[in-house]
Structure formats: C-alpha cells, structure tokens
Amino acid sequence: MANAEQTVTERFTELTGHVPAGVWFAPGRVNLIGEHTDYNDGFVLPFALELGATLAAGVRDDDRIRVDSVDLKETVELDVLRPYDQPAATTGWSAYLAGVVWALRQAGHAVSGVDLVLCSDVPIGAGLSSSAAIECAVVAACCDLFGLDISPIDRAKLARVAENNFVGAPTGLLDQAASTLCQEDQALFLDCRSLETAPVPLPLGDQGLEILVLDTHTPHSHVDGEYAERRTTCEAAAKALGVPALRDVTDLDAALATLTDELQRKRTRHVVTEDERVLQTVELGRAGRLRELGSLLDASHASMRDDFEITVPTVDLAVDTARANGALGARMTGGGFGGCIIALCEQGDGDRIGQSVAAAFAEAGFNAPSWFCVTPAQGARQL
C-alpha cells in the first residue's frame, strides 16, 4: 500500500503540476459465506481484504472531472457535473469513478470538479469486487474533499447507485458495504432486506488461523444467463410457496414437500440452508469458535455444487485439494462458474496448500492458479 500511495501521488503531481489534497484507499472483499442469498432477501457475511484501490485526489477550479489509471496508463477528461437525467458521459473503467461524482451530485451534494488518479491491486474478474473498491475510494475522497457529512452505510448506497445507474451493473449492496464498513479482524453481517449491518469478530490470527484465497483463473462462460435463470427460479419458488422471498421459508421440509418443480426444490434448499449457515457462522464468530467454521464452509460448497449447480471442475478440484492437504474447510466464493475459492487454514499453512492446488491443476491440465493469504482488514479510509 505504501508503494501504491507513492505511485498515485507521483502520477497526480505529474498530471496536475501540484501534489494531491490527499490519498484514499478502499479494499476489495471476500464473501466468507452467504452465496446467492442477497437477491433472496437473505444474509451475507463478507470481510475486507488488504488489497484495494488507492486514489490520489484534488479539487479543480472548474466543473470538469479528470480520471487517470496508473495501471492502464490512460487518462479520461469529461464533464459529468452539469445536471442531466441520463448518465451517458463515459463507459469502461472511468465510469466507476465518474459515476460516483454523478451519484453525489444527483443526491444533492455540493461536489465540483476533481482530479482523480487511481491504481488498484485487486485482481479484475476474480470476484473480489475491484469495482466497489474503486467506487468506495472515490466516495471517501469526495466526502473529505468537499466536507460532506454522509454516514458509512449511505456512502455504500451512493457507491451502489453509481454502479447500478451509471455503470449499469445490477449489483446489490454487499460489495460496497464491505468496502466501506468493514473493520480489521471483523466480518460484516448484512441483512439484505433491511440493509442493517453488524460487526462479527473474526480474529483469525489470534486463533492461529488464516484464510487462503485462490483464484482458479477459470474463464466465466454463460454467467449472465445462468445467474438470471437461478434468480428467476428462486422468485418462482417463493411465489409458489406464498412467501415474499426464500428468506421467509421457516420450515424447509414442508417447503420441499410443497414444491413440485425439482429445480425449484434444489434452489430453495440451497438458499434456506445457506442463510442458516450464515447465522451459524455469526454465532461461532461471536463465541470465538473460529476453528469450527470449516464444516460450514464445506457444507456451503456442497450446496453450491449439488443444489445451486454453480461450481465448475477447476473450482471443485481446488476445494477438494485444499481439504486433502490440510485445510479445515473450503468453498467457492462469489457468483460461481469460476473465480475464487477460500480455505480456512492453520496460520502459515496457506501457501503450502496453494502450491498443492497448483500441482493438482498442472496434473489436470488446467491453467495455473494464483493465491494469497488474508486476515480481515479495515474498510475505506484516508491514508
């Protein structure tokens, strides 16, 4: 992070001729447990990573926004600050930054022109929420630059507005809430219906544990269609059961007996049991019994594989290999059909397990994975 801070500061100075007003950071995130529960009004439990977006920022003396990506070596300058109804000023990576300025203005906040220089070490396409990290860094910077008194949860909501209404990605609040509200050695419990949040202790290091995050580098295919199919099936199941959402199912056996469509039965079983696993994980975290999380991670993966059917061979091999080589539990994290797995490991053991997965991938003819070990980190802040 220190190198990133220096990098964006130097680039900002080169671009503008003066030093930035400050440097801000917002992290990517991993979802510890709670997959495909969000759009079923259920529960999720993410935590923040040490990887994230670093942003140098300063106020301009005109009504323009200039954004620069150190990683892409590209600068975009535009006017998104005049009032208008349809956000169509920019697309691609710059939309994630410009969209936040637009969302703040649309919400009535007094934001003028800014220069923003970005670099990020969150892997793109790995399901670790690189876009939310960018958005939340911009929100934090603008709040400090313009003296905006916006609560952390409302900052997350504004970042989501930028992604939903400017970028055009229909995400929930999980990513932005985690990037903004998470604290060191804590996970963030989020009720996706009420949007209420609560911290959950996750002092992995104190209990001799760490989490391995391994990117399978599996190309995502047909994800949009598969995601839409599952969401539609879940909504149809809820309608058949006469409940607002699958989160409201209180008797799973009775629900499964009522449903006649086999896909609806499988999808319902995953969502209802996954919500319960989130609540059990919260209890274990608050009781300080983190070593017992492994069985819940294992059960989550089995449910995603068998009932929600969103895993792929690389992901299953990574999970199975991690367990066989000493992980206390492992599961796919994210929307599915590729991406990352997480594994609960003894402290110092994660890298060896990652190497074991790499060897298994090589033997199977899969692309080489990449990995790193994490403990929960702090959310968006000024450096």
TrEMBL record:
Gene designation: galK
Sequence positions that bind substrate: E35, H36, T37, D38, Y227
Entry keyword Ribonucleoprotein: no
Compartments reported by the entry: Cytoplasm
Function: Catalyzes the transfer of the gamma-phosphate of ATP to D-galactose to form alpha-D-galactose-1-phosphate (Gal-1-P).
Domain GHMP kinase C-terminal: residue ranges: 286-362
Reactions that this protein is recorded to catalyse: alpha-D-galactose + ATP = alpha-D-galactose 1-phosphate + ADP + H(+)
Binding annotation for Mg(2+): S131, E163
Pfam hit, one: GHMP_kinases_N
BP terms from Gene Ontology: galactose metabolic process
Domain GHMP kinase N-terminal: 96-181
KW ATP-binding (keyword) present: yes
Residues annotated as domain Galactokinase N-terminal: 10-58
Protein name per Swiss-Prot or TrEMBL: Galactokinase
Residues the record marks as site: Transition state stabilizer: R29
Active site (record annotation): D175
